[in-house]
Input
Amino acid sequence: MHRRSIAIVTFGCQMNDRDSEALVGIFLDKGYILTEDIYQADVILVNTCSVRKHAEDRAISFIGSIRKIIEYRQGKNNSLRSVVGLIGCMARSRGEEIFKKMPHVNLICSSAMLYKLPEYAEEILKGDKDRIIDLEDNKREEWFYHSPFRFDKNHAYVVISTGCSNYCSYCVVPYVRGELRLRDPQDIIEEVKKNISLGIKKITLLGQNVNDYYYIYSDNYSGVRILGGEEIKDKNIFSFVDLLKELDKIDEIEEIDFITSHPKNTSRDLFYLMANSKKFKKHLHLPFQSGSDRILKLMNRGYTKDKYLSLVDDFKMIVKGTLSTDVIVGFPTETEDDFLHTKDVLEKVKFKYAYIFKYSVRQNTQSAKLEDDVSQGEKERRHRILLELQKRLSLSI
Output
């Protein structure tokens, strides 16, 4: 009996890596086998990212190349059906457009509805439907994370929230992944314990902004919640720091880290916890994006340059660890003076590493309404200056 096979190609961030991993696990539970040979795969899924134009362009190019694979398979067996699925962020941002431009794609599914993919794939493979598109934005079913399959046998990603409600003006995430949705802390803790049972003792928690994790129990909450065998009382609230404290109690965990933190709600309480536990990596990824207060306000970031630098001082004093960051150059109306403020932050903080990007317009975002008035040549010049600066700083650390 022929066992159907699945191949998955992932573009973008660690969140997509975890989504792909969980998705493969569900297909394996349905009897599929995982293959790296996409010429042999019955189901080819491309998990996409829309945060940067470059990521979208790479995904589009790859999806276009799959057409030759489908023609190859049909040339060997004209009755052989295949599923080519575009999933993740680009499903929401491009939708029907993909069907029109790439007729070999027959399945499009948003990030929130990935758990439906095995069902949709079967419908297409059996010939019940030729094409399926599902762009719903619902809360993800918890069982999506239950499969024991892991790509990495030594390290695990654990999602604590999906989506984002910060609406930074340049960011497409709220539009392609939806509003912020938090997983129940007990479910997160159980997934961590599942990883430990698999021999995985290094954990990275994932969220668009982990500090937005602020779980509020329902109105019928009794005032006592059992977590990790202990009672948590008062207020019906469970914060990100509360979650970390519970994980810190699990003896078998060797290392915990998390991405990403937003400067506007990163706390000293978090720093003290990181400093006082041997389990937390003494490193923090803290994007500042721009050193210009004017540009930060246009970006809707919720802090100033001075507030960011004060937060960095607190981290270095309390945790005594290293920092990394994200930076955008060439945001609409960015002047040379704005750029020099950004350069100044890099020089003052001395990040261990930095991801430096040239601004690109993202559909539906607030900044898309602004004129993209910094020339490509100027974006490249500023990008090059910061890359060279960061290279020198990284070597000095």
Summary: DSSP finds 13 helices and 18 strands in the chain. The first helix runs from residue 14 to 29. Confidence is low (pLDDT under 50) at residues 220-230.
